[in-house]
Amino acid sequence: MKAVRRKYSIGRERSCDIPLADDSVSGHHAELEFLEDGKWLLTDCRSTNGTFLLGNGGTPRRLSQSLVSPLDRVRFGGVTLGMRELLEALRLKAGIPGPAPEEAPRVQGRRLIRCPCGGIKTAEAPCQECGQ
After folding, report:
1. For FRET with 107, which of 37, 60, 67, 127 sits at 20 to 30 Å CA-CA?
2. Other C-beta atoms within 10 Å of 108: how many?
3. Among 103, 131, 127, residue whose Cα is nearest residue 114
């Protein structure tokens, strides 16, 4: 049985798992890590132009490291991608586990959403970061 890779590189270099051909993207811009519990961790790799999580209404929030869901949109330098599309590209390219693009992310059967503060929470529960 083939071991599943855990980290995937995003950047301008052709050797990256997700290459982005744009001058605003650093050579090795960010990494996306598949965690044991099925969550995804996005880490900026000291990129020149930053990695941003786009909140409700498209408001960017610079991140150094953050959990992300397929519902999120992320900007790498000047390139904006939906996490759903990025995860689907990795799923097809590398055979990684994960939901098909039409499925909503879930934890213990509960649907996950992004809180206005930027935290990820279940739709039924208050946010652990801000209490909303």
Report:
1. 60
2. 5
3. 127
